[in-house]
Design brief:
The protein has about 500 residues and is of the alpha/beta class. The chain folds into two domains: about 120 residues, Immunoglobulin-like, CATH 2.60.40; about 325 residues, TIM Barrel. The chain contains ten helices and 27 strands. Bound molecules: alpha-L-arabinofuranose. Alpha-L-arabinofuranose binds next to loops.
Amino acid sequence: MLRAKIVLDPVFTIGEVDRRVFGSFVEHMGRCVYTGIHEPGHPTADAHGFRGDVADLTREAGVTLVRYPGGNFVSGYRWEDGVGPVEDRPARIDLAWRSIESNEVGLNEFTQWSRRCGVETMMAVNLGTRGVQEACDLLEYTNHPGGTALSELRARHGHPDPHNVRLWCLGNEMDGPWQTGHKTADEYGRLAVETAKAMRQIDSAIELVACGSSNSQMPTFASWEATVLEHAYDAVDYISLHAYYEEREGDLASFLASSVDMDHFIRSVIATADHVGAKRRSQKRVNLSFDEWNVWYQQEFVGHTKLGMEQTPRLIEDTFSVADAVAVGGFLNAFLRHADRVKIACQAQLVNVIGLIRTEPGGPAWRQTIFHPFAQTARLARGTALRVEPKGARHETAGHGVVDTVDAAATWDEESGRIALFLINRHPSSTVDVTVDVRGFPGAAVAECLRLEDNDPRRTNTAAEPDAVRPRNDPTVRVEEGCLELRLSPVSWTAVALTTAHP
Ligand code: AHR
């Protein structure tokens, strides 16, 4: 039997949890927009053609922020195609996914949908085929109050009030050779700083994200971030990180420990950004925007060269399992463990395309397994992230060496007096008993204990069985003499909410 011990204490804090770490991503890709969030004629569609069932699930997931409109898509996108009367909008070839983009949904529709779902919009500008002027035009159209050509155009399009989009991505994955308009770090760094300078002249309240590497395995990883920030350190607020994980060759143990790699990735980017800051003797800190993350079975993806110029093809509609949900719980824990520096994170993507949610055209929408750790962590993780260091159980993995069997994160909300603890048993076959010492919190008592587990870690949710995998409440867990005893089954995710005598 494996055993681990955790001590929670309000003295050991990491930083405030920024609610924007519970973001997601809507790209014009596959069926994320069309028949995902938008489907005129669907029985639940609103007057603007947006599916009510998907909007309800987006709210239920607790999504706080949505990045839009790409992704690789944005690097060939002309935003002007997506505004004005829908019947006048051109169909275009989407260079990223070799699909046909109808432009039926664009900026105005998307911001309306965001407002309806209570999420903040994070907008990306095209720095692939376009540059400073088009980014400025888009910002003027989106945020300028009125009295200029593009703000008046927005008013004529039925939106007199500015959308006030605060967060802007300066391009997408510009280090990737697959990216339309791919650039070297120097080329991109120069373009990012000039675009940032000009955009801030239009709206000084915006926050800007520079592209970091597309993933930590890129040959230019870390030197890309360093060079880009040498140019753009003073001009931007965040540097981006993207990561997708998958189980390879049946190695479940390594896959379940993917958050070890994510932690390392985050620490490496912090070190790189701070190195550039130190060289500049800067007091400013560039924080991290983990604006694409998820499980993605990329090895099963045919590759975009074989894509067939369809409208709304079924692209990368991975069906997620219990094991995938556990891995996702680990990624969310990693963000909480780095709450002092990871201020934004976007699960990619919201619907159908490696989605939290799946839909059928004209049919149902349902929660994928990964929906659950996302929704519960977004609901429960409040206030300040606590330092949690599991001691005891460890096991060997081929991909990450010896790892802690228990992946843990916790938050403490002083205002409500509530603690949230998130635990994963990363072991593919062994149970682990965990003792959680909460003596630092007088009066601590369990309010709820949710477990996501199954005898079959490959179990999935489908249209026929949409709730096969879901968290279940365990009413037996309680605090006794200041400690909590938990038995974690293999490949499982657990969340414990506690009340305390505080305030
Ligand atoms: O999320 C799918 C794709 O993954 C995005 O378009 C791109 O930015 C990343 O490579």
